[in-house]
Amino acid sequence: MFSFIHDIPTKVYFGEGMISHLGEELARMGSRILLVYGGGSIKRSGLYDTVVREIRSAGLELHELGGIEPNPRIASVRKGAALCRELGIDAVLAVGGGSVIDAAKFIAAGACVDHDPWDFIDRSKLTPIRKTLPLATVLTLAATGSEMDECGVITNPETNEKLGGHSPLLYPKVSFLDPTLTYSVSPYQTACGAADILSHILETYLDSRPCMDMIDTFMEGLIKTVMRAAPAALKNPCDYNARAELMWASSWAINGFILNGRTRAWSCHPMEHELSAFYDIPHGHGLAIITPRWMDYTLTHGGSCWRYVKLGTDLFGISETHTPMDIARLVIERMRTFFYEELGLSSTLTSLGIGREHLETMARKACGTKGFIDGFALLEPNDVEYIYRKCL
Ligand code: NZQ
Ligand code: ZN
User: Fold this and answer.
1) Ligand 1 atom nearest to CA at 254
2) Contact 328/292 with Cβ under 8 angstroms?
3) For residue 361, what are the contacts with CB-CB under 8 A and spacing of at least 6?
4) Which residues line ligand 1 (CB under 6 A)?
5) pLDDT for 78-125, tens place per residue?
6) Which of 103, 158, 211, 235 keeps 20 to 30 A from 61, CA to CA?
7) CA nearest to 76, candidates 94, 58, 49
């Protein structure tokens, strides 16, 4: 029942100043490096200069591609892959948040083929990834866990699609996690990041397939950590310990360890990816709005209470004298308070400028080619549309 292969091939340098090992690690990967980054936060923080110094002092040749968008676009991936081929790039270095790292993953894969990198992601083709350039990352935002996972999520605005692609070859070879690099993250992005980390854990924890106690306890520890560290980081953005807890939690929430040999069966994520695809909203904020509504709905539509009872009694100290349904409702209320009061995220899609116009289409697309979402409870397009409406 608990058979699985544990293989996370990403080497992590964690802590302040560990970036001093960047040059030596890149030198092992080759001599021509493509530095990929986002809209300029790394220039404003001074990190860009540090990275360039590291690359130059290791005697490596530096090329760069800036301007990767949040919710990264396939056009940027195509541009990066073409640059790699044209310049004979040996390795890709992503410096940024999940968007930059995700784009860099598909740039590294696209560099090794002649076809369009969208073919790796497009559900009608799903061309397997057979080779990638080696990828190094310097993480600047604790959220997605892309720094230590095998997934990337890319947006194609021409088709209004935002889709994830997976391959064991997409794991970064090495990632640098220095909590001080997240001191400059805004309160809003800090909150979105915390909501994303929590969602990765909750979507796994609530899965009622068999799970080891040891991993349940680990997940409860992760949830507790994020719920303590995020408010502390919001209060004091330069709180090293809080930033460190969030950063390491982001990696372990999605790197495969807590899956316990199961395949991912997530629900809120496909629903949120449609919101980002149509409205370009921050992923974590979309999740914070959807999650409590999804919990409410599934509880009375095919989901079971027992995982909530475990979470409520083990983690939140809710008395077992309540009925299981009451415990579940108290857990949901606790999450609502956390997202909307402690993290300060707004609680409705309307607040993000989202109306009714695409709800039906998004619900259908969220259910993918199978026509349903098979997570904590089975959801068909009309269920998903109902949940979206509750989020307005
Ligand atoms: O672009 P720059 O200028 O760097 O600014 C970014 C961006 O505007 C800014 N930022 C990042 N680090 C900063 C900073 N600002 C100040 N100081 C810093 N140190 O924050 C903004 C958001 O960045 P982004 O990378 O978009 O955020 P995040 O890390 O939350 O990534 C979100 C993307 O990852 C995908 C999401 O769907 C979304 O597209 N995901 C990827 C996953 C994966 N690879 O496994 C799983 C997730 O569930 C998620 O779907
Ligand atoms: Zn996520």
Assistant:
1) 45
2) no
3) 278
4) 38-42, 45, 70-71, 96-100, 102, 140-141, 143-146, 149, 151-153, 181-182, 184-185, 189, 193, 196, 254, 269, 276, 283-284
5) 999 999 999 999 999 999 999 999 999 999 999 999 999 999 999 888
6) 103
7) 94
